[in-house]
Predict the 3D structure of the following.
Amino acid sequence: MRVGIGQDSHRFDFEDKEKKLILGGVVFEGHPPLKGNSDADVILHSITNAISGVTCVNILGEISDRMCFEENIKDSSYYVKEAMKYLGDSKIIHLSISIECKTPKISPKIPEIRKNLSKLLNIPENCIGITATSGEGLTDFGKGLGIQVFSCITVSP
């Protein structure tokens, strides 16, 4: 088995009134979006980085920039799918996600995020753990300036 750890963070874009806040492929209405060239889905970016930790192929960077700027792919689920191509016959068997932010409240949307990630990663919902914290306001994320996510995946050959 292999284990991959991924992290990502983005600041909120308080000026963009068109873009939506998307976390784990789920839209959070009434909240400012995250800054980024893509949809800035910080959960999916963290998962992409965790997969890259197993495959040793970095997707976020040159590959995602090509997808975003040359192919106009802004949906971060495509970055996860691209990362998964490098897993070969290996399978993700468990995913753990830790989210730090003051807003939005994550807990009410956890079932929807788990369902979406289950479909995307082709693993059962009960193999996806999601926790959220405000971090007691000790960091910029806990103060409401953005969102930080850590992901840990377990992959079986």
About this structure: The helical segments are 42-55, 62-70, 77-85, 110-121. The radius of gyration is 15 Å.
